[in-house]
Amino acid sequence: MNHIVSSFSSREELIQALLASSFVPFYAGLKPVEFQGQTWIDGGFTDSLPIMPGGRTITVSPFSGPLDICPTHTGRSPIMLRLANMSVHFSRQNIVRLNQALFPPPESRMRALGREGYEDAVHFLKRERWTSSTS
């Protein structure tokens, strides 16, 4: 069962929540992080894109698919995978992205990925007409 926490009593509690919510079994160790008296694992295993009950939820992902902010898909990939409440293209590009998430590339590539993510966000803002298209 997923749990969304949005307020914290201290900086330390926030750090524990972040550690608990990003714990990937085996990859990050064998013992899950404890938060509020319980052990947790990364929510991406069960609901990687929680939709909030009120207002609009902007979906963001490092994988290409039918999301608000994500890399542009190139090539043909009629196959969509639905994993933990998120649909993504089944493609070589997304397999490379998964590998980069688990085994970070060199710093120069990390910087390039950061720039690409920024451009994806700007593209979304322009598409939604939330910013000037001339910037």
Q: Major beta sheet, specifics?
A: 2 strands, antiparallel
Structural class: alpha+beta
Secondary-structure element string: HEEEEHH
How much strand? 5-15%
Gross morphology is globular
Strand order of the largest sheet: 1-2
DSSP summary: helix tally = 3
Compute the separation of the termini in Å: 42 Å
List low-confidence stretches. none
Domain PNPLA: 1-55
Protein name: PNPLA domain-containing protein
GO cellular component, one term: lipid droplet
GO molecular function, one term: triacylglycerol lipase activity
Can you offer a commentary on this structure?
Helix content is 32%, strand content 9%. It is built from 3 helices and 4 strands; from the N terminus they run αββββαα. It has helices at 11-21, 92-102, 107-127; strands spanning 34-35, 38-39, 80-83, 86-89. This is PNPLA domain-containing protein. Keywords: Lipid metabolism. Pfam families: Patatin. GO terms for molecular function: triacylglycerol lipase activity.
Task: List the defining traits of the structure above.
single chain; 135 residues; alpha+beta; two-stranded antiparallel sheet; two-stranded antiparallel ribbon
